[in-house]
């Protein structure tokens, strides 16, 4: 399994702000919002988030497999996950892995 990343995600108006808290770049970044067991969520891919950098992405750029765009007037950002070549960020998964390893989540 890929290592957990130190990421912060927060909705700012109609944008999603993502901070890379690690000392290395994230490459081939895939972000998923509001996925559930029955819904794959809204997705967006970007090439890179550099080390210690913050990017702000319009929520309207996130899209489902069926072509539905995220509309911040009708929807609220609930949770997000991020995968890249260097690791993953999923709050629930990383907290569980860190708990098993006896450490605290970043």
Description:
By secondary structure, the protein is mostly beta strands. The protein has one domain (7-101): Immunoglobulin-like, CATH 2.60.40. The chain is 10% helix and 40% strand. It has one helix and seven strands. The protein has one helix spanning 91-101; strands at 7-12, 15-20, 26-33, 42-49, 54-58, 80-84, 87-90. The strands form two sheets. Strands 4-3-6-7 form a four-stranded antiparallel sheet. Strand 1 (7-12) and strand 2 (15-20) form a beta hairpin. The model has no long low-confidence stretch (mean pLDDT 91).
Would you spell out the secondary-structure blueprint of this structure?
Layout: E1 7-12, E2 15-20, E3 26-33, E4 42-49, E5 54-58, E6 80-84, E7 87-90, H1 91-101
Antiparallel strand pairs: 1-2, 2-5, 3-4, 3-6, 6-7
Question: Could you name the key traits of this structure?
Answer:
single chain, 106 residues, mainly beta, Immunoglobulin-like, four-stranded antiparallel beta sheet, three-stranded antiparallel beta sheet, 10% helix
| β-sheet strand percentage | 35-45%
The CATH topology, please? Immunoglobulin-like
The CATH architecture would be: Sandwich
Largest sheet: 4 strands, antiparallel
Calculate the mean pLDDT score and round it. Answer: 91
Rg, rounded, reads 14 Å
User: Domains counted in the coordinates: how many?
Assistant: 1
Q: Determine the N-to-C terminus distance.
A: 17 Å
Category by helix and strand content: mainly beta
User: Residue share in helices?
Assistant: 10-25%
Q: Give, in order, the helices and strands.
A: EEEEEEEH
Q: Number of helical runs?
A: 1
CATH C-level class is Mainly Beta
Runs with pLDDT <50, length 5+? Answer: none
* Shape verdict: globular
Number of strands: 7
Q: How are the strands of the biggest sheet laid out side by side?
A: 4-3-6-7
């Amino acid at each position: 399994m890929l290592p957990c990343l130190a990421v912060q995600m927060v909705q700012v108006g109609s944008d999603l702000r993502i901070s890379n808290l690690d000392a290395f770049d994230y490459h081939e970044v895939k972000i998923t919002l509001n996925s559930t067991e029955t819904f794959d969520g809204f997705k967006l891919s970007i090439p890179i988030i550099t080390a210690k950098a913050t990017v702000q992405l319009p929520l309207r750029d996130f899209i489902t497999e069926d072509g539905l765009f995220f509309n911040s007037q009708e929807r609220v950002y609930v949770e997000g996950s991020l995968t890249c070549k260097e690791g993953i960020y999923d709050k629930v998964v990383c907290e569980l892995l860190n708990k098993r390893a006896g450490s605290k989540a970043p």
